[in-house]
């Protein structure tokens, strides 16, 4: 497996990986999870936040995308404050410039079936925390089911809800923030058994790693 960090403007390989990601997201979130509002005739899950502000962390295996996530700076238009602002009751733990909104976490259905924590999921958890540290973020926000919040807590992250749960499509969802720290990174590495860095040490923008760091 390889990790790719893809931003716009992406090169040819990055565009191919994004296209795979959009189609896999549509399959997972629309066809399987039933998020009908995201349905598109071209079978691609693309929204207003798949833009130049977004960073896509994608996991591939032999050139095929098998997992991904998206991060958007909180001082730019983002999903939490635009679509789910009603879930936020109170202030962020720090200035929005020090945070990012974590959205569209997914692992290919064939990779997670019958597994408690797929390697792809473990890699994405580690990569998200590493990337956040490399960018100087102090917290990450997200909206998810209660079970996803429990997964984050299980890997040793400090997670704080930002309001009471609400019902969406018949299921409870909650907005929360995750503390970004070296300790949080060490905890998730220890929990997942992934000790090697996945994200480049340099925090300077780069469309992607063409060769990709190899994952354990």
UniProtKB/TrEMBL annotation:
<keyword id="KW-0012">Acyltransferase</keyword>
<dbReference type="GO" id="GO:0061579">
    <property type="term" value="F:N-acyl homoserine lactone synthase activity"/>
</dbReference>
<protein>
    <recommendedName>
        <fullName>Acyl-homoserine-lactone synthase</fullName>
        <ecNumber>2.3.1.184</ecNumber>
    </recommendedName>
</protein>
<comment type="similarity">
    <text>Belongs to the autoinducer synthase family.</text>
</comment>
<dbReference type="InterPro" id="IPR016181">
    <property type="entry name" value="Acyl_CoA_acyltransferase"/>
</dbReference>
<feature type="region of interest" description="Disordered">
    <location>
        <begin position="195"/>
        <end position="216"/>
    </location>
</feature>
<dbReference type="InterPro" id="IPR001690">
    <property type="entry name" value="Autoind_synthase"/>
</dbReference>
<dbReference type="Pfam" id="PF00765">
    <property type="entry name" value="Autoind_synth"/>
</dbReference>
<keyword id="KW-0808">Transferase</keyword>
<dbReference type="GO" id="GO:0009372">
    <property type="term" value="P:quorum sensing"/>
</dbReference>
<dbReference type="GO" id="GO:0007165">
    <property type="term" value="P:signal transduction"/>
</dbReference>
<keyword id="KW-0949">S-adenosyl-L-methionine</keyword>
<keyword id="KW-0071">Autoinducer synthesis</keyword>
<keyword id="KW-0673">Quorum sensing</keyword>
